[in-house]
């Protein structure tokens, strides 16, 4: 692979991670400053996170290269989860439906993102390792949510707080990954100009 091809892939991939980081950080920070952590706030948080993620992934999925199909599937999972959160917000704003939504969303999106990261890594797409990390953290979050009734974390305050914490962790990690990819692409372009 030439230096120009590596630079082009890196310059395309960092934007997807940066926009995903921005939406996750916005939701994570908002949860920190909202004092009411009721099921309604949890559903609004889920709606915002899933909706922003779906939009950013769908719009920028072309940046995923060969993993575009998997990323579009991930966007679809986020969109369906956002619609489900909106429906639950008006029909059943309680902890149990919120918990079910979080478990199903995290498990589905974690598996799809894991496949996307594998496909991207096979084609040397910059950001594949970041997607793998997000997939693993999302699957761990699904496991935590599945165990939350056993360990006593199934109340609305815990569910909303843990969703905000998840969003903040993912947002920070994706932001760091986007920054390092962008700087790497810039350094590669600079090296190719010197040669």
Automatic annotation (TrEMBL):
<feature type="transmembrane region" description="Helical">
    <location>
        <begin position="40"/>
        <end position="60"/>
    </location>
</feature>
<keyword id="KW-0472">Membrane</keyword>
<feature type="transmembrane region" description="Helical">
    <location>
        <begin position="72"/>
        <end position="92"/>
    </location>
</feature>
<keyword id="KW-0812">Transmembrane</keyword>
<keyword id="KW-1133">Transmembrane helix</keyword>
<feature type="transmembrane region" description="Helical">
    <location>
        <begin position="163"/>
        <end position="185"/>
    </location>
</feature>
<feature type="transmembrane region" description="Helical">
    <location>
        <begin position="131"/>
        <end position="151"/>
    </location>
</feature>
<feature type="transmembrane region" description="Helical">
    <location>
        <begin position="98"/>
        <end position="116"/>
    </location>
</feature>
<feature type="transmembrane region" description="Helical">
    <location>
        <begin position="12"/>
        <end position="34"/>
    </location>
</feature>
<protein>
    <submittedName>
        <fullName>Putative membrane protein</fullName>
    </submittedName>
</protein>
């Amino acid at each position: 692979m030439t230096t120009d091809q590596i630079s082009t892939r890196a310059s395309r991939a960092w934007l997807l991670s940066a926009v995903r980081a921005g939406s996750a950080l916005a939701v994570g920070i908002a949860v920190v400053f909202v004092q009411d952590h009721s099921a309604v706030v949890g559903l609004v948080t889920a709606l915002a996170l899933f909706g922003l993620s779906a939009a950013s992934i769908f719009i920028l999925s072309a940046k995923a290269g060969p993993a575009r199909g998997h990323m579009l599937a991930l966007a679809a999972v986020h969109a369906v989860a956002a619609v489900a959160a909106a429906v639950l917000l008006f029909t059943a704003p309680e902890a149990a439906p919120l918990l079910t939504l979080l478990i199903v969303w995290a498990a589905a999106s974690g598996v799809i993102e894991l496949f996307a990261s594998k496909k991207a890594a096979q084609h040397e797409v910059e950001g594949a390792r970041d997607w793998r990390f997000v997939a693993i953290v999302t699957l761990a979050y699904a496991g935590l949510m599945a165990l939350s009734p056993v360990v006593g974390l199934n109340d609305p305050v815990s569910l909303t707080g843990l969703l905000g914490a998840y969003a903040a962790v993912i947002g920070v990690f994706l932001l760091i990954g986007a920054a390092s990819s962008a700087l790497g692409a810039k350094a590669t372009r600079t090296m190719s100009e010197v040669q």
